[in-house]
Structure formats: C-alpha cells, structure tokens
Write a structure and sequence with these properties.
This protein is of the alpha+beta class. It has one domain. Helices cover 24% and strands 38% of the residues. It contains two helices and three strands. A three-stranded antiparallel beta sheet has the order 1-2-3. Helix 1 (15-26) packs parallel to helix 2 (83-97). The longest helix has 15 residues, at 83-97.
C-alpha cells in the first residue's frame, strides 16, 4: 500500500475496508448499498505532418457510493481514496438517502440569452 493514502488505487483497498464502507453506508437503515471504484489511465499524442506536437497522460481514480432506502437513493463520490475520504462518501450517501425533507417540484423556465 502506498505511504500516502491519497495515492492509492482501487487495487490497494482491501476487502475488509470495503466491507467497513458498506457497513457505514447501511448504518442509517438503507436496504442496499454498493461501491463503484474507478481507475482509468489515458494518454494521447498530437501529430502534425508526422511530427509529435504534444503528448499528454492522465489518471482518473475515485469511489462512488450508492445507498438505497425505500424510494430514496443517495450517491456520493470522492477522488481521494484515503480511508477518511471514502468513509465520508459512504456516510454522505447514507445521509442523502435518509434525508427527511421533501422538496416540492419547482417550475423551470429558460433564461433569456
């Protein structure tokens, strides 16, 4: 496991920690929760007349947590795979799924351009 938890990838997260995150997600009484880990690497080259003009590479990594409680669904995402950040995402998704306040539909109209 990397020294700095922020540099973790999904493969660095042990099953025991995933189980703990699911427990946090279900702690407010949800009937279902799932974790979605993402890890994507990209690279590109821009060629002009056979000459490399630019190159780039990137990494996208994170965790999404979904909690279902009756008719409500809560979702939270973090791009920080530290234990604390993933726990916050699980707790946030659980809170959203159990929020008691209902908001009535709001009328929507296009803004003038």
């Amino acid at each position: 496991m990397p020294r700095d938890e922020r540099a973790r990838t999904p493969a660095d997260v042990p099953v025991s920690e995933m189980e703990r995150l699911l427990s946090l997600a279900l702690a407010r009484g949800g009937s279902f929760a799932d974790l979605y880990f993402e890890h994507e690497t990209t690279s590109s080259l821009f060629l002009e007349e056979g000459i490399i003009r630019s190159a780039s590479a990137g990494v996208s990594c994170g965790l999404g947590v979904r909690v279902v409680a009756g008719e409500r669904t809560g979702y939270a995402y973090t791009d920080d795979l530290s234990s604390a950040a993933m726990a916050r995402a699980a707790e946030t998704a659980a809170h959203i799924a159990h929020a008691s306040k209902s908001v009535p539909p709001q009328p929507v109209s296009p803004a003038p351009v």
